[in-house]
Amino acid sequence: MHCPFCRHGDSRVVDSRTADDGSSIRRRRQCPACQRRFTTIETASLSVVKRSGVTEPFSREKVVSGVRKACQGRPVSADDLALLAQRVEETLRGSGSAEIDAYEIGLAILGPLRELDEVAYLRFASVYQAFDSLDDFDAAITSLRVERAEREASNPSDDPQDL
C-alpha cells in the first residue's frame, strides 16, 4: 500500500477492525518513511457477469430498483427493499465466488421476495422466469398456496376464532 503523503511503496498495519456491517475491514496503517498514519477500507469485490459477457460490480441499488417495479402498489417500504437487497448480497457473498452470473442474482432475489410479498414475488417471477401462459401463473400460485398451508399447519394459531 503506497503512502498517500510521501508515496513510499510500503506501509505497516497498525490496527485492523471489521466495519459495522461486517462487509469491510478498516485498517490503520503507518508509513515507515514519513511515520504518518492513514486509514484504508478494504472490501471484497463482487462482480456480476451479464448474459452478454460484460462484467460489472454488484449493486444493491440495481437489486432495489428491479424489485421496486414488482412492488409498485404493494405495502412494501423502502426499508423492506433495502433489507431484501442486503440479504441478497449476503447470500451471494456467502457463495464464496467473486463473480456471480446475473441469473444467480435473480434466484437469490426470489426467496426473500416471496417471504416479503407474494404478489410482488409473482410479478417478479413472471418476468424473471419468463411465464408465457396462464398455466405458469397457476403453477406458481399453487406452489404459494401449498407453502402457506404447510406454514399454517406447522404453526397453528391460538386464536379461538380460527378454530
In words, what does this structure look like?
The protein has 163 residues and is α+β, with helices and mostly antiparallel strands. It is 46% helix and 18% strand. The chain is built from 5 helices and 6 strands, in the order E-E-E-E-E-H-H-E-H-H-H. It has helices spanning 60-70, 78-94, 102-116, 118-128, 134-154, and strands spanning 12-18, 24-30, 37-43, 47-49, 55-57, 99-101. The strands form 2 sheets. Strands 1-2-3 form a 3-stranded antiparallel sheet, with no helix packed on it. A hairpin with a 6-residue loop joins strand 2 (24-30) and strand 3 (37-43). The longest helix has 21 residues, at 134-154. It is elongated. The termini are far apart. The model has no long low-confidence stretch (mean pLDDT 88).
Sum this structure up briefly.
The protein is an alpha+beta fold and 163 residues long.
Please state the oligomeric state of the protein chains shown: single chain
Helical coverage, percent range: 40-55%
Cα-atom Rg, whole angstroms? 23 Å
Total DSSP E strands: 6
Spatial strand order of the main sheet = 1-2-3
- The run of helices and strands is EEEEEHHEHHH
Poorly predicted ranges: none
Outline the biggest β-sheet.
Answer: 3 strands, antiparallel
Number of helices: 5
pLDDT averaged residue by residue: 88
Shape: elongated
- Strand fraction band? 15-25%
Q: Distance between the terminal alpha carbons, to the nearest Å?
A: 67 Å
Alpha-beta classification: alpha+beta
Supply the key terms.
alpha+beta; 3-stranded mixed beta sheet; 6 strands; 3-stranded antiparallel beta sheet; 5 helices; 163 residues
